[in-house]
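Supplementary Text 2. Reproducibility record for the structural model of the 531-residue chain.

All settings were left at their defaults, and a single model was retained for analysis rather than an ensemble. We include the record here because the model underlies the residue-level annotations in Supplementary Table 4.
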Amino acid sequence: MGLDAVARLGVSILSDDDQVSVDSITLFVALLCGCIVIGHLLEESRWINDSITALVIGLCTGGIILLTTKGKSSHLLEFDEQLFFIYVLPPIIFNAGFQVKKKQFFRNFVTIMLFGAIGTLISFSIISFGAKELLGKLDIGFLELRDYLAIGAIFSATDSVCTLQVLNQDETPRLYSLVFGEGVVNDATSVVLFNAIQKLDLSHINSRAALVFTGNFLYLFLVSTFLGVLIGLLSAYLIKKIYLGRHSTDREVALMILMAYLSYVMAELFDLSGILTVFICGIVMSHYTWHNVTVNSKVTTRHAFATLSFIAEIFIFLYVGMDALDIEKWRFVKDSPGKSVGVSAALLGLVLVGRACFVFLLSLLSNCLKRSEHDKFGLKQQVTIWWAGLMRGSVSMALAYNQFTRFGHTQQPGNAVMITSTITIVLFSTVVFGLITKPLVRFLLPSSQGFNGLISSEQSFARPLLTNGQEVEVEMGNVDPLRPSSLSILLKEPSHTIHNHWRRFDDAFMRPLFGGRGFVPDAPELSKGGC
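Retained model, structure tokens:
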């Protein structure tokens, strides 16, 4: 059979529905290209970021589709809510771990974990309790206790990517590090909480149920972390031992990408937190695996992971923009628009209060544990941290769709109100808070008095705990590392003490076995077979 005949056969077997899908996919991809081009043209302003651009284009496209279909639909494509978790979120979260500036991240590790984990739990408690009290009085429809707990997890998840697009890493390096680190830990904690809630038996609420919930949370957190470390180390060991790059960098790149995705799907297979697993795997692979590949593969993987993450982020906001005008969801609230506005306002208020409670409370606690005035957070810095974490984005949307829809649809008024309220909060926080963040940071923290001054007090770290391939390590020379002589030193300088113990263990055992900077010679570039 000739090529023409095959082509005719392929066209003939396309049904009308298939042709509509092809047309929709083509237009959707064209919109993604438009978001990238327009975002590039607006890059200089540092006000309108890529997320806002995709949202606005999605809203405009949804409005046009709504008019052309006479109010029947605002979508080009409709997706199962699991699409966000299986295909879209993994590259975003993995790239966050793979590209993290580990020098800054681990210098501020205690503060990041304090805000990202403990802070998220505080915010979750306040939002869940407040939603139960406030939304119950608005009569939006039937919601179970599990729904209210899920609401706490949904709106505790920040959108650090959108925030960081309006921050400058050179002007406020420590602020950037804190917001980024807290954001990724916050997202992982929120997803672990959400998964633990789904397994919670709410038929009997007592102290035993609370203990079971706590046990599930710790189990998911610890086992998911262990699985991410295990797969990351396995990828490093395989690539170091069999050295795929001597024949082709394509195999190295393919193995790294597939191992990264394997960590996520294995976590989902075992009912763990795939988000946390793939984030930890990203950190481990950037510390060990990345140094074991050829120069060509290093460049390729770093840009490949960043590109996949960027496309996924734009995809989510473009889809959310179109979904914001979905008639099916809004028809449940059209008879009582005031009620929908009230729900959105109540939830947004809880987000503001919940974040304020833990930021200012934990900042006070952090200041009490620090001896140097340069290390302490001033009021303006605390306000900046509070504001920088108010935006809600992809993780909140994905969790909301997972909890309140089935295959993107819902027929229950209460669920529809929650979806529309989530969309409203994501749109409002991304656009309004996103536009205000940059001038607010410049007003509160001028370049001369921002977080830069706080870096000087941290220079006692002669070398970073973990470094990526683009950071320069400072050699210690003949300077002896600080050796804690008592428990008091550990309590006063936990990051410094843990850093030194980990560094010795990493250099003595981990890097010789799994590879890493200084333990694997850089392979020459390959003239053929590169990516």
